[in-house]
Amino acid sequence: MSEQLVLLGLVVSAFSGVPGLFVNRRSNAGQTLTTGLAVIGAALGLIGVGVFWVTGDATPIVVPWNIPGAEFHVAMDGLSALFLVPICLVSLLGNVYGLGYWKQSEHPENGRKLRLFYGLLTSGMALLVIARNSILFLFGWETMALSAFFLVTSEEHDQEVRETGWIYFVATHVATLSLFALFALLRAVSGSFAIAPLDPAAVTPGVATAIFVLTLVGFGIKAGIMPLHVWLPSSHAIAPSHVSAIMSGVIIKMGIYGIVRTLSLFPHPPVAWGAIVLALGVVSGVLGVAFAIGQHDLKRLLAYHSIENIGIIVMGIGLALIGRSLGRVEWVILGLSGGLLHVWNHAFFKALLFLSAGSVIHAVHTREIDRLGGLAKAMPRTAICFVVGAVAICGLPPLNGFVSEFLIYLGLFSTLGIDGGPSFAGATLAVPALALIGALAAACFVKVFGSVFLGSARSEHAKHAHESPTSMIGAMSVLVVACAFIGIAPVAIAPALARAVSSWAPEFGDASARLTALAPLDKISVMGVVLVGTLAITGLWLRSRLQAGLLETNSTWGCGFTAPTSRIQYTSSSFAEMVVGLFAWVLRPRTHRPRDLPLFPQHADFHSHVPDTVLDEAVLPTFHHGANLFSWFRVFQQGSIHTYLLYIFLTVLALLFWR
Amino acid sequence: METALNISIHVLVAFTLPPLLLGVINKTKALFAGRVGPPLLQPYYDLAKLVQKGSVFSTTTTWVFRAGPVVGLATGVLAVLLIPLAAPAAPVSFTGDLLLLAYLLALGRFFTAAAALDTGSPFEGMGAAREVTFACLAEPAFFLGLLVLAKLSGSLNLAGMLGGSLASQWTTAGASLALVVLSWFIVLLVENCRIPFDDPNTHLELTMIHEVMVLDHSGPAFGLILYGASVKLFLFSALIVRLAVPVATGILWLDWPVFVGGMLAVAVVVGVVESTMARLKMTHIPILLVAACLLSAFGLILLVR
Question: What are the backbone angles phi and psi of residue A551, rounded to the nearest 5°?
Fold first, then answer.
């Protein structure tokens, strides 16, 4: 039943943009129709997940397919259901948000295209998480990857957008190429393209290592694990904001899904795998947030935070792998449920942050943090949405980010072997790393929230900001509620997590009771409520005191300086300067500062910029050298279809003789 | 019965004692300087006065400016209920409460710094930037210390980690514990903006950290900040006292006086440090904080080698 509902929703989503194509491109009628269909599609998917959670039975649908090795085989399990939730929910909200943000009448040239690919993207992702055949999986994967390409390049008239789209395109195809190799290897050891657990005896260590590396590379590029993240920051920055929300919230999670699913096929992974994955998570987390803090483009900054959060998720997965190798069930449960819960949480709060950023961009038409300021007055609702997202992403109570980091922390602490069992002390080094990540994230979001929403406006645009329409605020409010709900009542989602853990590592049995026994989720709820209550009481007390006393308003104290301007405010760059200095060894900030200043003040300028070290210093040079190296190959690439037909003919001929 | 009594004393001590610590520090500094100094209870008089006063708000500010002091105090008050003082357990205790403790303080910091930025003042921005930057280095040091305690006690809640077994662990793993005490003392100094990190008595806004963040607050809101800061000082001192003086006889009238005595002693030590040291150059602060991390890390290595 649940599979049918999800498939139906997937089909409705896939075709949601089609009717709109036949409606006048300057009228808003088409967008209402399309959005209605997309919402129905996503809601059907969510209902399907709900049915699966309630009934718990999965009835796989298997239909023969005439492609060699392929069969149309879809099935639901705990892991698929878990990933379907952010896919459907963020897509639904993104569509609704688009009604106000990307009005057809304001974007006649690309609005219809954008909505078409938004629906296709959703259906591609839904297909790949329920696919149980690797060729079907690749169909879903490529639908997702190509739709995302067209979404990223929505504004293709812009040179920067085209260049970024190109980088994304190359990256996603390197990933797909790795996946081809990965599935070919899996086929070689298992004898079929079905995605099913492997017989450990059939897999030699060499092949297993190759599969592991290909998994990390192929899915890691999509997930944006440092240093494979090169495509991510700029694509997230230049895409329309509701596209960035689904890219950062959901698409990169498909990489995580791939890693989790593939590694679940190995019942006895070597312990080194877990250690490597955990180390990658730490690197991604720390460097992701370090790069984020150096950015001054609002959406680019949020994009680097995606890398950081992927790092946290990967840390959870690494811990679970170590636990599976060493047979420590509590590490598996805490690590995996923490990591998977963070998949949800990041989807919700990051979508919320990108949508809030979109609301800001909608109002002031710039992404430059240093040109904003004081928006909380003109856009109070957006400001509240943003601050909720910011508190949640920093992992602070009483919101959802705290719960998932709590689970991962507990798992990492227990690798000390405190209950007398075997220990894996190396993993505990991730504890201070996670603490560092949390503190850096808080620093970064104080900076963003402060520079964008607080203080006074730094430009004319920011002075004339206005609040966004209800469709946008409404979509954001749902995400605010989701963040608060998971933060206050994590017990409610524990069964869904436990089900996912059970389908990842079935050998440990039902994880549901164990998860609630290991992690005091009920205490988190109590403390969350108490915290809100204490805040309310203190707030009310202050309010009554303020009402009782004399209230005066004046300008900010400037230490005697009586003509303050908004230009004397601390900018985001100055705020981040100390942290960027601490991480200068990897961030390599490019700074231009005035030299040899004369005695009397003159015109001077200062700018600083943190480029992507991996892209600029490793990937681009490698590709340039590669292009030079292979330039002799151009002889064969003349752009003439006749010649290409000849090549195909010769290849087929050669294959015939070779057989 | 005994538990109820312990909880009552806990709440009483945790909410009335904090300002006294500030008084003790100031008195110690005055003694070193050869002055009489303000009365020991001066911080209480200040609070009483601030609560009665009117307020001035900058036209630039929004609700965030008022939320800063509220969140700062509320998180501190909740956090102090998580730490065992002299009783075997704190009023609130569960697996992983140490994480809630650290993240509650981070929540307070988030809003205090945001409130500073809300004024649009360059000085307050400067203070906020320093506060959050130094926290980035203090946090790992704190967590490394927690790891040491978790490993020693085999427990994942503060009651177990700072519980009665600490006394015997001082004989078996004294070196690790001493390193943690030292590391956490440095964390105490930076989290509460004491010398050598920050001089609470300075009058030059350019060199301040905490004081400059709250420059624009006045009246009851400033009272909340002052009280919140003293609660935070109390909280970190309590951690140090539990670690360094692990007296747990189980006798109420013995344990509590020892604890309060320990708290006052920590305040005196802070005062002595402030009187005998100069503040560090701003660029040297990260080096000392990294050293604090390393101290705790050595403590951990000694245990898991």
Answer: -110, 135
d(CA B74, CA A397): 12
User: Under an 8 A CB cutoff, do A570 and B130 touch?
Assistant: no
User: Chain A 360-419, CB below 8 Å of chain B: which residues?
Assistant: 373-374, 376-377, 380, 383, 387, 390-391, 394-397, 402, 405-406, 409-410, 413-414, 416, 418-419
Of B52, B55, B147, which is closest to A416 when you measure between CB atoms? B147
**Given the structure tokens 């069992």, which residue do they identify?**
A421
DSSP A432-475: HHHHHHHHHHHHHHHHHHHHHHSS--SSHHHHT--PPPHHHHHH
User: In A, which residues are within 8 Å of B304 by CB distance?
Assistant: 416, 423, 425, 428
**Is-contact A333 A511, C-beta < 8 A?**
yes
Decide if A359 contacts A468 (C-beta within 8 A).
yes
Cross-chain residue pair B74–A442, CB shorter than 8 Å? no
Which of A450, A545, A566 lies closest to B220 in CB terms? A545
Q: Smallest CA–CA separation between A135 and chain B, in Å?
A: 44
Q: Do A418 and B123 touch (CB under 8 A)?
A: no
What is the residue extent of each domain of chain B? 2-304
Give pLDDT tens digits along chain B (305 positions): 778 888 999 999 999 999 999 999 999 999 999 999 999 999 999 999 999 999 999 988 999 999 999 999 999 999 999 999 888 788 899 999 999 999 999 999 999 999 999 998 888 999 999 999 999 999 999 999 999 999 998 889 998 898 878 888 888 889 999 999 999 999 999 999 888 888 877 777 778 888 888 888 999 999 999 999 999 999 999 999 999 988 878 788 888 999 999 999 999 999 999 999 988 888 899 999 999 999 999 999 998 87
pTM score over 0.80: yes
Radius of gyration of chain A (CA): 26
Total number of residues shown for chain B? 305
Per-domain residue ranges for chain A? 1-201+225-267, 269-543+569-592, 613-658
Q: Are B95 and A376 an interchain contact pair (Cβ–Cβ within 8 Å)?
A: no
Question: Are the beta carbons of B139 and A435 separated by less than 8 Å?
Answer: yes
Sequential DSSP letters for A290-310: HHHHT--BHHHHHHHHHHHHH
Instruction: Yes or no: say if A291 and A324 are a contact pair by the CB < 8 Å rule.
Output: no
Rounded Cα distance, A247 and A163, in Å: 18
Q: For residue B3, give how far its alpha carbon lies from the nearest alpha carbon of chain A (Å).
A: 20
**CA-wise closest residue to A515 among A312, A266, A341, A275:** A341
Q: What is the 3-state secondary structure (H, E, C) of B67-111?
A: HHHHHHHHHHHHHHCCCCCCCCCCCCCCCCHHHHHHHHHHHHHHH
The residues with which B56 forms a beta bridge, in sequence order, are: A552
Contacting residues of B for A443, CB less than 8 Å apart: 132-133, 135-136
Q: What's the ipTM?
A: 0.96
Q: Under 8 Å CB-to-CB from A578, ≥6 apart: which residues?
A: B129, B130, B133
Instruction: Determine, for residues B128 and A373 on separate chains, whether the beta-carbon distance falls below 8 Å.
Output: no
CB pair distance less than 8 Å for B57 and A551:
yes
| Residue whose pair of structure tokens reads 């239909």 in the numeric block | A63
The minimal CB distance from B58 to the residues A445, A550, A555 is found for: A555
